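Researcher: Sequence recovery benchmark, item below. Answer with residues only.
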């Protein structure tokens, strides 16, 4: 697959194209250190994961897009304001991705969610879920809708899907979403505490609220209406994962659709992110 130049920080690929190289997520307490190393350090075993960024087919682009307008790259992603810039004293929701064998799906703005969901469900039934790559607000929204739809496709099979999100690097809109398959519980989930995420929400503040509740053993659910709010939600989950590292905890999420009413009584389709914590 030929890669084109980056536009707004996003590498352009053929739409709906599957690749043979999975870019797995990694982690570190240093904002730019891979997440898997941070997980290993939290277990007392130290790091060791590679930090290479190349892919088997010609390598990945290394350019990083700016978050918004302005000569210094100021402004939020999609115009959220300067408060959304990653600060040096804040943990970043980002990590470098290392190549590994497996299947990767690139979801673009024009990808059809039902088609992507069908691919996810087919892979889940075979036990080999893909890693999803998406870039920017609209593509991220299409990705989350695809995962939500795939969960409904898997109900009859007794399976469910959990997702973990990271971003490629500081100020990058490129996200990696790793999927895992679980057996669907026989009993319904306990009640979640609902947090509403808006298009202008600060993901660091939302992440702090999530992490605080998770430490108190509360179940948390993010509610988002519109593509910008969905993007802020996955940013918040990525940041919250880092906040919880010192507690030897990690987060995954399962998105689902639900109907809500606007002020004038119009029915709108929104997304819920049910969050699940695990010890690492």
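Model:
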């Amino acid at each position: 697959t030929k890669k084109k130049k980056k536009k707004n920080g996003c590498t352009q690929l053929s739409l709906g194209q599957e690749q043979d190289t999975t870019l797995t997520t990694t982690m570190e307490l240093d904002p730019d250190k891979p997440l898997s190393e941070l997980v290993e350090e939290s277990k007392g075993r130290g790091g060791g994961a590679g930090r290479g960024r190349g892919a088997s087919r010609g390598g990945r682009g290394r350019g990083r897009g700016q978050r918004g307008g302005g000569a210094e790259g100021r402004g939020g992603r999609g115009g959220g304001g300067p408060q959304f810039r990653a600060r040096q004293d804040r943990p970043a929701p980002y990590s470098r991705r290392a190549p590994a064998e497996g299947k990767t799906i690139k979801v673009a703005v024009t990808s059809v969610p039902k088609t992507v969901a069908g691919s996810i469900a087919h892979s889940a039934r075979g036990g080999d879920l893909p890693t999803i790559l998406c870039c920017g607000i609209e593509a991220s929204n299409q990705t989350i809708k695809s995962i939500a739809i795939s969960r409904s496709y898997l109900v009859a099979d007794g399976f469910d899907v959990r997702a973990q999100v990271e971003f490629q690097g500081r100020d990058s809109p490129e996200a990696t979403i790793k999927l895992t398959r679980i057996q669907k519980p026989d009993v319904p989930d306990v009640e979640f505490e609902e947090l509403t995420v808006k298009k202008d929400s600060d993901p660091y503040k939302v992440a702090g609220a999530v992490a605080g509740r998770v430490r108190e053993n509360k179940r948390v659910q993010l509610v988002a209406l519109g593509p910008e709010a969905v993007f802020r939600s996955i940013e918040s989950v990525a940041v919250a994962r880092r906040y919880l590292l010192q507690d030897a905890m990690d987060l995954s999420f399962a998105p689902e659709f639900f109907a809500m009413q606007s002020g004038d009584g119009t029915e709108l389709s929104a997304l819920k992110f049910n969050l699940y914590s695990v010890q690492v």
